[in-house]
């Protein structure tokens, strides 16, 4: 399956944190196996329980991992951006995706076949400096933290707090003060009714934390928005900073 992606020439693979952790020797081993792709927003990369044929190292694109229930309910359990690897759990032995994967921010990525990545990891397994495997495993640890924290957040915190956290995390990824998002899309990610998102967004706008008009969300007061968000935002942000620090220092 080619996912309808567009092949293109990108900048250095080192735009991805995990690829950037590699030595020059390790990077030269994997570069011939990487394909540069450009991905569109809302593209479905893989459905829940389908097998991964390719894994993705995002550079500027971002993916949402969506849990889909039999009644049609959906909820985002994690995001994968330039800090990680989409499909990382496949290196543990399971080829099937545990979630639906949707592109929530268009951009670029490098993809590699699962078989090729498994061979590279197996070939380097006997060397002390197999940084790719070490970095992926550390990334998986962070992903588990994000998933478990998200479960607690969905259970204990108000929708207004969850929306503030989710928007802040999204703003962090795009490195911009403006997001192009409909309320229906946000509701899909948060697993709630669109009307509930409308009410929560109105409250945030009334407090002058955001401006929302015609699918454009502008962050107008980050400091107060962070105070409004639940503790989960700071916990997840700190965990991502720790991942970056540890991988870069290894």
TrEMBL record:
It holds the Pfam family cNMP_binding. One of its GO terms (molecular function) is kinase activity. Keywords: DNA-binding, Kinase, Transcription, Transcription regulation, Transferase. One of its GO terms (cellular component) is cytosol. Residues 18-138 form the Cyclic nucleotide-binding domain. Residues 157-223 form the HTH crp-type domain. InterPro entries: cNMP-bd_dom (IPR000595), cNMP-bd_dom_sf (IPR018490), Env_Response_Regulators (IPR050397), HTH_CRP (IPR012318), RmlC-like_jellyroll (IPR014710), WH-like_DNA-bd_sf (IPR036388), WH_DNA-bd_sf (IPR036390). SMART domains: HTH_CRP. It comes from the Bacteria. This is cAMP-binding domain of CRP or a regulatory subunit of cAMP-dependent protein kinases. It comes from Nitrosomonas ureae.
């Amino acid at each position: 399956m080619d996912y309808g992606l567009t092949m293109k020439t990108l900048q250095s693979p080192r735009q991805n944190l995990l690829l950037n952790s590699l030595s020059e020797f390790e990077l030269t081993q994997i570069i011939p196996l990487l394909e540069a792709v450009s991905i569109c927003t809302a593209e479905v990369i893989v459905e829940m329980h389908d097998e991964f044929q390719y894994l993705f190292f995002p550079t500027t694109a971002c993916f949402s991992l969506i849990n889909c229930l039999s009644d049609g309910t959906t909820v985002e359990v994690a995001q994968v951006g330039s800090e990680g690897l989409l499909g990382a759990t496949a290196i543990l032995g399971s080829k099937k995706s545990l979630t639906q994967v949707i592109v929530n921010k268009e951009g670029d990525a490098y993809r590699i076949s699962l078989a090729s990545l498994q061979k590279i990891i197996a070939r380097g397994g006997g060397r002390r400096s197999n940084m790719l495997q070490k970095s992926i495993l550390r990334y998986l640890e962070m992903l588990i933290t994000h998933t478990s924290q998200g479960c607690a957040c969905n259970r204990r915190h108000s929708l207004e707090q969850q929306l503030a956290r989710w928007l802040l995390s999204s703003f962090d990824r795009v490195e911009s003060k403006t997001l192009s998002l409909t309320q229906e899309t946000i509701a899909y990610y948060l697993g709630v009714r669109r009307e509930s998102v409308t009410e929560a967004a109105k409250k945030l706008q009334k407090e002058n934390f955001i401006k929302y008009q015609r699918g454009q969300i502008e962050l107008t007061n980050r400091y107060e928005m962070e105070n409004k968000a639940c503790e989960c935002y700071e916990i997840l942000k700190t965990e991502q900073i720790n991942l970056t620090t540890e991988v870069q220092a290894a």
